[in-house]
Amino acid sequence: MGGGKGFDCIYIDPPYNPPSNSNTFLYNNKFNHSTWLTFIKNRLEIAKQLLKRDGSIIVAIDENELFYLGVLLNEVFPDHEVHCITIVHNPRGVQGKNFSYINEFALFVIPNGKKIIGNRNISDNEIKWSNFRNWGTESNRTDAKNCFYSIKVKDNNILGFGEVLPEHSHPNQTELLNDVYEIYPIDRRGVERKWRFARQSVENIKHLLRAVWREDRYEIELGKDYEVIRTVWQDSRYDANVYGTQLLKELIPECDFSFPKSLWTVHDCIQAVVGDKKDAKILDFFAGSGTTGHAVLEMNKKDGGSRNFVMIEQLDYVQAYTKERIIKVIERDRLNTRFIYAELADFNSIYIKRIGEASDIKTLLNIYNDMISTGFLRYKFNPDGFNPDEFKKLEVGEAKDVLLECLDVNHFNINLASLGDEEYEVSDEDAATTRRFYGLEE
């Protein structure tokens, strides 16, 4: 694990690998279980290196790879707890052979034995109120002397708190002085009880108290506006159609990104981990439509935080959707924040794209000739062993695989150490920007 540097939270929404041909994800989901696990394991191992010691990773997934992923996470993060959260994201349901699926999952990977997850804020109508005066066993005044003091009320508002009364002082439950009621923890039978918080700590929970007139006197009630986060999340805010697809369409009308996450699903996942860390750093290396960045911007807007996010995406829609979404949100909400967009400089990746787009052997042969003259090939590849006549006999798909095997995977993009090489034709401005990005120069 890393030290003090790194990310506080990594949120990823990888390909779900559904077994259906009707899958409409823009991601490449054509993996079987074993290759999918290899695909995700490599990325999780790198993610582990990028996390802070007390950092957490959240992985979104559905039922297709849930159990495989859970075992993998336990293997990669042996010193962490793995918690499975169920999120109802499609209340209309997707019909299966035996069940209609309405939920997906978020696996939270957090350091063992640490209080990492914050509490969930609840709305006013969810608050459950109870008497602030203790009852039952060990509730008498003599059980905790620092818990017998007055609570000052005027016009149904709690103004403050009196000092702890000496043992020989025995007030009425309600004392009226200069239009201010002073309420003591005395029940209707006249038994002197105690408040549930001592005088030295009650100031901290004043905002959780209210004064209620009951028949002929005030009662003080306690209602927490938060609760421990539960393992099943069911709220209209998590509807991926309304707060995912429709929300994205409002920002980018021409967008055809399929099944984006609900903004509030991602928001609440990240909020659970870094809600109290206003300077947190968040990473998402399956950026998709940019929901993670949008969620972080929402968090900062609400609490004045300065959290930073880094998103990474390798598919072509990043310019049209991912980048554009973040820009639109910043402009719409008039946010005083910077957004930096950068692309890896292509090299061998250019050939990968050309090979993927080719439709016949002749085109692939032309690409091969270009690769020989300008590309970086695998050190084991011997051009003298390439037979054009045999190559022409291959199916197009097989021929593409042959060319892909020729390329050196370490040169898909221009490496940092090669910025100054003339053959790459990197401008001085781009080189300087890149070095600043990696902290190599001011």
User: Span between N and C termini?
Assistant: 28 Å
Sheet/helix structural class: alpha+beta
Largest sheet: 7 strands, mixed
Strand content: 15-25%
- Spans of 5+ residues with little confidence (pLDDT < 50)? 22-27
Mean pLDDT: 90
SSE order: EHEHEEEEEEEEEEHEEEEHHEHEHHHHHH
Strand order of the largest sheet: 16-3-6-2-1-17-18
| Total of DSSP H or I helical runs spanning 4+ residues | 12
Shape: elongated
Q: Total strand count, please?
A: 18
Nearest-angstrom radius of gyration? 30 Å
Helix content percent band: 25-40%
Describe the model.
It is a single chain. The chain is an alpha+beta fold and 442 residues long. Helices cover 30% and strands 19% of the residues. It has 12 helices and 18 strands. The protein has helices at residues 33-50, 66-76, 199-202, 241-251, 263-274, 291-303, 319-332, 348-357, 361-374, 388-392, 396-406, 428-437; strands at residues 7-12, 51-61, 80-88, 94-95, 100-101, 103-111, 119-121, 130-131, 151-154, 157-161, 174-177, 180-183, 209-214, 217-222, 226-228, 232-233, 281-284, 308-311. The strands form 5 sheets. A 7-stranded mixed sheet has the order 16-3-6-2-1-17-18, with helices on both faces. It has a 4-stranded antiparallel sheet with strand order 10-9-12-11, with no helix packed on it. A hairpin with a 4-residue loop joins strand 4 (94-95) and strand 5. Helix 1 packs parallel to helix 2 and helix 5 (263-274) crosses helix 6 (291-303). The chain is elongated, with a radius of gyration of 30 Å. Residues 22-27 have low confidence and may be disordered.
